[in-house]
Amino acid sequence: MQNSTRYGLSLRSIARTSKAPPNPVVVIPGFLGSRLVADADSASVWGEWRSDFVDPATGTGAELLGLPMRIGKPLDQLRSKSRVDGTLSAVRGSIVGMPVQINAYGSVLSAFGVESHADTFSMDREASAAAGAVAFEYSYDWRRSLDESAIEFEAFLERATRFLQVQRQSSDPIRFDVVAHSMGGLLLRYFLQYGGQLLPFDGDGPRLNWGGAAYIDKAIMIGTPNAGSLRMIERLAKGMPGNPLLPAYGPVLIGTMPSAYMLLPRGRHDVCAAGPVDILNPEFWLEQDWGIAASWLDEDRAKQMPGVDSPGKRLEVAEDHLRKCLLNARVFQEAMDRPVEWLPPRLEFHLFVGDAARTPSEFAGERGNSKLRWTGYGPGDGVVLAGSGRLEEPGGGSPIPWTSVTTSSCRHMGLMKDQVLLRQVMDLLAGQPPT
């Protein structure tokens, strides 16, 4: 098992100096942070952009990367034709025939000694497990609703617990520390507060039971958009623009993903220049002619729904999916914004936020896609405002009782590569306050 010493401290060094073995660590990536491959032939759908990657501009590519849409089907029953294939350690592709590799989560995985996803529960971990210095990655389908990923995360921790108990030849309980980036922090926080509950669409939302606190001591969230990100309005309205390495991903494709709507900002936080707006109201998107049901996107909808021949029927399916995703996001955000008076014994909430980059804080736009623009900025990491990370409310304060909040000058992905920040995280894992 590899353990990086570039950061001055490693899980193995913590194990040597601790009276008891440290908790095993789980790393959770953010939105776009897991590789995706096709079920049929394992072709790269997301994460590898070389000659044989699945092109999202084709009907096959759009269908493989986007999630299916069906009227009358709940979101958790819609299944993709592609699957997760580990955390995205690096973005790989080619420019004019030359191979290019850009670090994504490789630094943090190396810092904690996380092996290849294929070896998550490998028997080769025996010596490390015995020493207590163990780290895992939890790669999940970042397209799906986060309550579904929380259910799978609970099953993952159960498997990791059994694996470590066998390796240690002990039935003693196992507790974990979790380091989560961006949307991964929302997944973590939902799991801690609500365990493996699917979001209910009647009553008062999921029941606060702290179901995940039975597994976890330290929850370390890095660049997490606890109050959402205005960047996701842009992604849902305009898609993701292409560059020399990556192709463009249109708004219909992004709009099939329930998780994207969960990342929308709170309307009560004065994010619209025109005044208060309910961003989770389907009528807002339909009136603006933005997103998956925009009038000018029928060609993209046709690629996403190859079995639906009528433009009118495709629009009906898209509107139905929009309404389901926005309702799902509303229930999720209401659950995540409930004031938390206390944390269970042993559980700690630690937050790292960027506050030195110019980050969108207000938008304006007229009907149609091309008019969306930023009209205000605030301190953040370029994607997530520092106030969103802390979930600061307009009247002051936060509904989250943070154990510690640490600021950084890094940008959103740079947070996971910064040596100073990774050292601070290692200090936390060793029981020392961040400096």
Element string (H = helix, E = strand):
HEEEEHEEEHHEHEHEHHHHHHEEEHEH
Strand order of the largest sheet: 8-1-9-10-11-14
The pLDDT mean sits at 89
Poorly predicted spans: 1-8, 125-131
List the helices and strands and how they pair.
Elements: H1 11-17, E1 25-28, E2 34-38, E3 44-46, E4 48-49, H2 59-65, E5 82-87, E6 90-95, E7 98-103, H3 106-111, H4 126-131, E8 135-137, H5 146-168, E9 176-181, H6 183-194, E10 216-222, H7 230-238, H8 251-255, H9 258-262, H10 282-288, H11 298-304, H12 311-336, E11 348-354, E12 357-364, E13 373-380, H13 386-390, E14 404-408, H14 419-429
Parallel strand pairs: 1-8, 1-9, 4-6, 9-10, 10-11, 11-14
Antiparallel strand pairs: 2-3, 2-5, 6-7, 12-13
Helix pairs in contact: 5-6
Could you name the key traits of this structure?
435 residues; alpha/beta; 14 strands; globular; disordered N terminus
Brief sketch in words of this structure:
The chain has 435 residues and is an alpha/beta fold. The chain has helices spanning 11-17, 59-65, 106-111, 126-131, 146-168, 183-194, 230-238, 251-255, 258-262, 282-288, 298-304, 311-336, 386-390, 419-429, and strands spanning 25-28, 34-38, 44-46, 48-49, 82-87, 90-95, 98-103, 135-137, 176-181, 216-222, 348-354, 357-364, 373-380, 404-408. It has a 6-stranded parallel β-sheet with strand order 8-1-9-10-11-14, sandwiched between helices. Strands 3-2-5 form a 3-stranded antiparallel β-sheet, covered by helices on one side. A 3-stranded mixed β-sheet has the order 4-6-7, with no helix packed on it.
